[in-house]
Every structure is written in structure tokens, then in C-alpha cells.
Amino acid sequence: MRRKFDIVVIGGGHAGVEAARAAARMGAATALVTLAPETIARMACNPAVGGVGKGQIVREIDALGGLMGLAADATAIQFRMLNRSKGPAVWGPRCQSDRHAYSAWVRKALADEPNLTIVAAEATELLTENGRIVGVRVETGGDAGASSPAGGVEGPPGQESAPLDSELGRAEKASQAVRRQADLRCDAVVVTAGTFLSGLMHIGEKRWSGGRYGERPANKLSDSLRAAGLRLERLKTDTCPRIAAESIDISRCTAQQGDEPPTPFSFLNDTVDIEQVHCYLTETNEAVHEIVRDNIHRSPQFSGRIETFGPRYCPSFEIKIVRFPDKPSHQVFLEPEGRDTNWVYANGITTSLPVDVQERMVRGIAGLENARVLRWGYAIEYDFAPPTQLRASLETRQIRGLYLAGQVSGTTGYEEAAAQGLIAGINAALALRGDDPLVLRRDQAYIGVMIDDLVTKGVTEPYRMFTSRAEHRLLLRADNADRRLTPVGLEVGLVDERRRRRYQTAVGAVERAETLLKSARSGGKTPWKLLCRPEMTLAKAAEALPPAAAEELARLREEHPGPLESLRVDARYSGYVERQEAELRRMRELESRRLSETLDYHNVPHLRHEAREKLSAVRPRSLGQALRVSGITPADITVLAIHLSAGGKRGNVGSETGNMGKM
Ligand SMILES: Cc1cc2nc3c(=O)[nH]c(=O)nc-3n(C[C@H](O)[C@H](O)[C@H](O)COP(=O)(O)OP(=O)(O)OC[C@H]3O[C@@H](n4cnc5c(N)ncnc54)[C@H](O)[C@@H]3O)c2cc1C
After folding, report:
1. Cβ(314) to ligand 1 under 6 A?
2. Closest ligand 1 atom number to CA of residue 237
3. Which one of 196, 301, 335, 422 would you pick to mutate in the ligand 1 pocket, going by the greatest count of ligand atoms within 8 A of its CB?
4. pLDDT at residue 147 above 60?
5. Percent of the chain that is helix, strand, coil (3-state, to 5)
6. Residue 591 C-alpha to ligand 1 middle, in angstroms?
7. CATH number, domain 1-152+182-495
8. What is the pLDDT, as a whole number, of residue 241?
9. What is the mean pLDDT of the chain?
């Protein structure tokens, strides 16, 4: 078979689905090649979307016209706004999801896309000609563990894993099928292979080849990426045991309720009408810690079987015990995986200790004395491509038309993956049209912060988002993501008519309310200024308005509660933002000074040797990005700026000019 598509996306995880849908919606004939279509948008770890930093990303994906916020709202079982005790700038919307419903909802959404074809196959080879991508070779059937990186790999911990997952049976059946090959011709490829590239899974002394529990790995694509000139390294991540709900004694745990009313993720939803389920909180104790300490040598992370790094901020339970020896207990959140399932995720005890240790450890926790474990915790090591090999568009520098996004670029988390997938899909489609890539600025979106961090600084562990990574977090709030990014989504052609109309109506209301609040005066201060006080509400500030204006404001508040509340937060932070203006202007000016990708830093006079080496490795696209490369000093930037002024005349600037991001 030889078929021609515009864009082929490899991998149906959280990155892949956003990439494929965005590309298809922007008019590209798109194929999504994925190992098992029934696992599309599967949550491999905790059944939850959002959180602090991550929730902001979901809102940004939604504002650009992406899928994740809509899918989360449609399939949530509990909503909570995290960080409410702090300022609204760092509030993090989060929901507990029905894991199976989420995946099914996304599958249906993709099936409804007319420009999108789903291909159930393994992508084994990237086809290139003269440094450009021209297609993807795919295979169906074949042996799941055929070319394992670990040589004599041992089998999965069969009977100990009580009861064995039916998914594993399916993977084994697939491995007995006959292999067939086909070439899909295309102009761009987005690789979103997650943890599947040469995946090696661990529980205690056992290890086996796999992409996720019960799923085959993708071993051949790594070789093809290397052949294309990409450097691959290894990272690891782990997950916790799943427990049968009926075996938990909830009377010994603390119930955690959702927010009433729930705050939806998507700007298209005013409310979500669901019955929320409870999660439960319990904690570990000294006896449990003792079990872990006594068996620490059997953990693959301590026995030397795993030598790669996992997320430092989300450590395994055994690492917590070693790192915090004096802590008498650690919280464990018991989170249902859905409405119609008895699977409960034990958030807080990710582990790859042997099964007998996990069993004692779990049963030592209050409420889990009689727990029946449905799946044991495990760790997985996998290949990833250090992201300094990518442009800010997420295209690789090595091969034109080849984009990478998600866990394969060194991140962890569904939200981080989805955001990169969305940007890679958008940029692949823009490149087809001959348009400049979309590069979001750091003062414009958490997505901009993340991608800039990845391509500028690289990673030494799986990267996850925190609000502390953003220097302009008062601007990058969950509540104003639509105002920041829906115009960008409109410009690239991803925002549909319904969202456009809703957005414009909301913006109209916000602008009108701002005019009202700024125009009326009370004792010399406008109501806008009064709103700087944290305790001041819009209703209270409106008392300072003439009656007709107050009435109009009350009507706007009733019709557009979300956008008007966001305006109140704007007013509250306006003083800080004004004070940051000078710094913002300086940064935007540096961002607009472009550096050529082919600039020879060794020929830039007076540049330090270290700066030459580092800039040659990262190849920043602007002076602003150059300043963020580790080891680059303001003095280096001055040298470069002087060189640019002269070099610009010699055509040494402006290779990647695109930046649709506008505030
Ligand atoms: C054990 C484990 C623990 C984790 N722990 C956490 C955690 O604590 N916190 C957190 O935020 N995140 C965690 N994650 C990570 C989270 O699952 C990922 O970050 C997220 O799913 C990444 O999305 P992705 O789209 O990049 O890849 P994935 O969701 O992994 O999807 C990859 C997709 O690519 C397909 N695929 C791969 N190779 C090929 C190929 N060659 N051909 C065709 N299809 C292919 C696969 O079938 C799959 O559909 C964990 C993941 C695992 C496996």
C-alpha cells in the first residue's frame, strides 16, 4: 500500500490526538498512526487532568481551539480548584476523570474529523530524501518484544500480578499476527511516541519489554530517529498500584469532595452538570516506611537495574522514604478511575518495588488493610530525544518536516504532552501552507514557557510544569487564557465559529465593563482602582458608580460571570503589571531581534569561547532566547547585539521569523 497524506502523526496519546486533530482541522489530510486505536488518549498514570500549572495549560489548549479541556469537562467525575488559598494567578483547575470515558470521548471526537484517518499500525521507519521527510513506513502484526534493547529480557511478573490484565493477553495475541508493511507518503511527520520507544518495564527484580503495562513497545522507530541524525537518551517514570474499591475501608480515610459548583475547563462550557464522586485521603506510617527501608535494595532504582532519571518533583515512594527519613507519614489520595469501575488509583505511592513488598506496604496503610491490588506499581525506562535538538516550532533541526512532541521530547504529564502536540500539529499545518510557525512567547502562555525551556535549556529529568517556571505568572492566569490565546487560535484557523462568536461577545462585555469601571469616579478613585484590594468585589466596587452604570455592570456580570470575574483579577493585579511593563518591553524587544540559525558563532568577534560553544549547540532564534541559554551572560548579549547590527546588513539575521503570538 502507498497512500499520500499531508501530515502523518505517529502515536495516539495525548500529544498525538491534539496534533492530528489540529492538523486535520486546519485543512491537512492527516493520518494518525497508532499501535492500538482502542488505547487512544489513554491515561497511563493518574486519572486526572489539570492541577497547579497544568490546569493553566489545559485552559490554554482550549483557548487555542484544542481538545483536552472539552474532553475533560465531558468525562470528569470530580472538579477541584487547587491553590485557592493563594492569589488567583496561581489557582489550578483540576478534575478527576473517568479514564475509560475520556479515552472513548476522544476516540469519537477524532472519528468525527473528516480530514483524519486512523491507521492501526506500528510506525517503524521515517522516510527521508535530501534532509526532508517524505513518508513513514508502517507495519501491522509481528512480534511485540522482537528487538528489545535489554538483550535477555525476562518475562512480565505473571501470576503475582493478581489478576493479570486482559490487555496483556491482547498484546500477546497481536504479537502472533503476520507482519505487513506499507509506506505512507507525506510532507510532514509529528512523532509522539510517549514511553514506547524501546520501553523497558520494571517491577523489583523482574523486567520486560513494553510500552506501558500490557502494551507492546515500539522498538524500531528509535533506530530510524538515530539514522535521521537525532541523539536519543533514556529517562524513566513510574506509577502506583491500583486497588479494588470494595476492598478499601473508607471509614478509616477522609473523604474529599469536589467543588460546588464545579468550574469547567472549557470556555465553551458555563457549567458542567454532573454528580461528583468522592476521593479519599489516607496516609502512610512508620511501619510502612520500615518495610520499604528493609527492602530498598530490591528496588530497581536502588539495585542499579535502573540507571536513568525520573521526575524529581514526583518521586517514587521509595525515593521519598530515603530522601525524607524524618517524615513520619506521607499522604495517599485514593482516586476512583471512573464511575463504572472498581479501580482506584493510589496517588502518592508510585513504586517499582517487588510485588511481595508492595503488598505489605499497601496493606500497612490505614484503610487498605484488606486491599486487593488489581495492578502493581511499575517503572518504565524509554528513549527520548533531548529537546535542544528542536526549533521553537518543535521541528527537528536535523530533518525538515519532522516534528517531535510529548514524552518523547523529555516531558511528563498529559497536559504538557497535549500542549506540545497541539503546537506541533499547528506548525506542521502552517508549514504546508508556507506560513511562519507559531511560537508563543513566555509572557503570553505557559505553553510558550514550556517550549522555550525545553528547546533552550533541555532536560535532565522528565519536565513538568509549575507556576514557578513562569516569570510573568500574573499575566498567565487560567481565567484569562481565552483573551490571551483565542485570537492566536483564530489567526491560525483552529478556532471554530461557535468559539469565535462566544469569545467576541465575552470580550465585548469585558471591554464595556472596563470602560465603566475606569470612567466613573468616587472620591478621586475610580472603581477600577478600588478593585486593587484583594477583598473588593465587583458588586462592592459598583456602588461607587452612578445608578445607570451600576445597573449596566450588574447586567454584564449576570450575563458573563466568568469573563467579568477575570476582569476583576486584571484590576487587582494592574498595579504590578504596570510596574512590569518596562521589563516586558525590554524582553519583547530582545525577542524581536532575530538570530540566523546558520550564524557562525565562532566568527562573532569578542564572544567568549564558552558562549560560542553553548550558542552553537542551542542555536537560539532571538537575542531573548540567547539570554536564557545556560551560561550566557548579559555581556555576551551585548556583543551579539553589536554583531547583529553590523551582521544584519550581511544577511545574518532572521531565519525563523515566525511569531504569531501577539498580546
Ligand atoms: C508508568 C507511567 C507512569 C507515569 N507517571 C506519570 C506521572 O506521575 N505524572 C504524569 O503527569 N504523567 C505520568 N506519566 C506520563 C503520562 O502518561 C505521559 O506523560 C503522557 O501520556 C504522554 O503523552 P504522549 O502523548 O507523549 O505519549 P503516550 O500517552 O505515552 O502515547 C504514546 C502513543 O504512541 C503510540 N506509539 C508509540 N510508538 C509508536 C509507533 N512506533 N507507531 C505507532 N504508534 C506508536 C502508543 O501506542 C501510544 O498511543 C506516566 C506514564 C507511564 C507509562
Report:
1. yes
2. 3
3. 196
4. no
5. 40, 20, 40
6. 33
7. 3.50.50.60
8. 97
9. 90
The C-alpha atoms of residue 205 and residue 178 are separated, in whole angstroms, by 32
Q: Enumerate residues 6+ apart whose C-beta is below 8 A from 455.
A: 387, 388, 390, 391, 392, 618
pLDDT value at residue 142: 57
Can you give the pLDDT at residue 167? 41
* pLDDT tens, position by position, 590-629: 999 999 999 999 999 999 999 999 999 999 999 999 999 9
**In whole angstroms, how far apart are CA 415 and each of 48, 49, 176, 408?**
10, 7, 35, 14
Q: Determine the residue of 9, 32, 35, 415 to mutate for testing ligand 1's pocket, defined as the one with the most ligand atoms within 8 A of the Cβ atom.
A: 35
The reply to whether ligand 1 has any atom less than 6 angstroms from the CB of 520 is no
Kindly tell me if the per-residue pLDDT of 649 is higher than 50.
Answer: no
Q: Which atom of ligand 1 is nearest to the CA of 350?
A: 8
3-state secondary structure of 404: strand
With beta carbons less than 8 A apart as the criterion, state whether 235 and 386 touch.
Answer: no
Nearest to 475 by CA among 572, 370, 603: 572
d(CA 63, CA 503): 9
Distance separating alpha carbons of residues 513 and 531, to the nearest angstrom: 13
- Chain centroid offset of residue 545 CA: 43
Task: Compute the average pLDDT of residues 501-529.
Answer: 89
Instruction: Tell me how crowded residue 662 is: count the other CB atoms within 10 A of its CB.
Output: 10
Distance from C-alpha of 390 to C-alpha of 190, rounded to nearest angstrom: 12
The pTM for the full model equals: 0.92
Three state DSSP letters for 33-85: EECCHHHCCCCCCCCEEECCCHHHHHHHHHHHCCCHHHHHHHHEEEEEEECCC
- The answer, yes or no, to whether residue 168 has pLDDT greater than 80, is no
**φ/ψ of residue 652, rounded to 5:** -95, 10
Closest residue to atom 35 of ligand 1, CA basis: 11
Pair type for strands 402-404 and 188-191: parallel
Q: How many residues does the structure list for the chain?
A: 663
- Which CATH superfamily includes the segment(s) 593-650? GidA associated domain, C-terminal subdomain (1.10.150.570)
Question: Confidence class of residue 144 from pLDDT cuts 50, 70 and 90?
Answer: very low
Residues of the chain with CATH 1.10.150.570: 593-650
- Rg (C-alpha) for the chain, rounded Å, is 26
Distance CA 364, CA 317 (A): 14
**Weakest mean pLDDT among 8-22, 428-442, 631-645:** 631-645
- Is pLDDT of 24 > 90? yes
pLDDT exceeds cutoff 60 at 435: yes
The reply to whether ligand 1 has any atom less than 6 angstroms from the CB of 222 is: no
Report residue 302's pLDDT band, with 50, 70 and 90 as the boundaries. Answer: confident
Instruction: Read off the pLDDT band of 169 (50, 70, 90).
Output: very low
With 0-12 / 13-18 / 19 or more C-beta atoms within 10 angstroms meaning exposed / middle / buried, residue 42 is buried
Domain with CATH 3.50.50.60 in the chain: 1-152+182-495
Q: What is the DSSP letter of 229?
A: T
